[in-house]
Amino acid sequence: MITERDGAGGGAADGGSSEPEDSGGEEAQVIVVGAGPAGSAAALHLARAGVDVLLLEKGGFPREKVCGDGLTPRSVHQLVRMGIDVGAPGWVRNKGMRWVCDGNEVELDWPRLGSLPDFGLTRTRHDFDDLLAAHARAAGARLRTGVKVTGPMTDGAGRVTGVTAVHGPGGEPVVHRAPLVIAADGASARTALALGLERDAGRPVAAAARRYYRSEARTHDPYLELWADLRCPGTGRDLPGYGWVFPLGDGRVNVGLGALPQQRRSRPVDLRQTMELWLARTPEKWGLREENAESPLRSAPLPMGLNRRPQYRRGLLLVGDSAGMVSPWSGEGIAQALEAGELAAETIALALARPAGPRREYALQQYPVELLRRWGRYYRLGNVAGDLLFSRYGFRPVLHPRVMASPRLLRALARLLIHVADEPSQDGLDAVLHTLMRLVPRPRR
Hints:
Layout lengths: L16 E2 L11 E4 L3 H12 L4 E5 L12 E2 L1 H9 L10 E3 L1 E6 L2 E6 L10 E3 L2 H15 L2 E4 L1 E8 L5 E8 L4 E6 L2 E4 L6 H5 L10 E10 L8 E5 L13 E7 L4 E8 L11 H9 L18 E6 L8 E2 L2 E3 L15 H19 L5 H7 L1 H28 L7 H4 L2 H12 L9 H12 L6
Parallel strand pairs: 1-10, 2-3, 2-13, 3-9, 6-15, 13-20
Antiparallel strand pairs: 4-8, 5-8, 6-7, 10-11, 11-12, 14-17, 14-18, 15-16, 16-17, 19-20
Helix pairs in contact: 1-3, 1-6, 2-6, 6-7, 6-8
């Protein structure tokens, strides 16, 4: 499961705090709350467009985040657009995915499409977020760490005018003012909640856990390995998700698993015990044993399926996990966070070119419209697949031996899971996937 983890403080659930008399803070055209992938991408693209942007992060860098550390070609594409040198030291390339199920293995190279790179990457979040934030700062964004946002600030009409925060060891209160705020504060989504943007309770929130191990046998594996036949302890049922082993190239691997709730009202899967049962099955030479562990097991929620709407309201735009942008197909979140950050920045830059008033507001309201145009049908179909298939039976039915024996079916599955296809269609698989998406009813805003 690949996903992002940003962080910012919470706020009152009464629609934000009213403007105080004295701020003592900074002013900007746009404030971005959270300097994870979504926030840093938004800040970088805004700064490049000439927008005065203030990027606020409650923690410092480098830092730990719960993540699979794996980046698909969609993520690589966005990194290249940001000007990141993906050939520099610290990046480890991979050729594709290796699926393991019921004793069978199959390797799927990343699709060779004209619109995306044909390789993926791994890099730990320990310095990945630091690198992205540094690029945003180099582009002109004002990065402030150690600033915990406590909520949005609104005027008498309920429109966002900035954020309240505390900073420094003593928690000094401060107000930062801006007519537009981007909430990139992760799964907690406290900034969004303060404006009454509630999560869709009908959409599940998955959970992921990961741990680092020393493993010379697997650290240079050219594929991201995924296991689809894991069992839950106690019940013996299939894990409603999958496990992963991602090579980091430095003597370590990232080992983890993610799972949907098996039923909406059921207890969460015990990820720790499930991982213990799984790793006991792995070959001894891999080294995935307690004595080789280099971190504690850490877990985090995965808000999926565009589960918070609308993604824009009264001067606040939501990106990344705060909007529930994790893919319901694969659990990937970083690519979506980076793409949404760029889209939010583009929307704002175009809106600010208009005079304040109805015309600017109309431009800002196009942000959720464009999100649904790009992702709506894909997410809607993924939500249905999650409800009817993945949450009940896991990935084992998808990787039936007949599917694993068919290169064509596997290529189609790979493109569907990671949401890659050329537009216009370049081959038959593209055409099939585009036709499938057109048959899905367009979701409502």
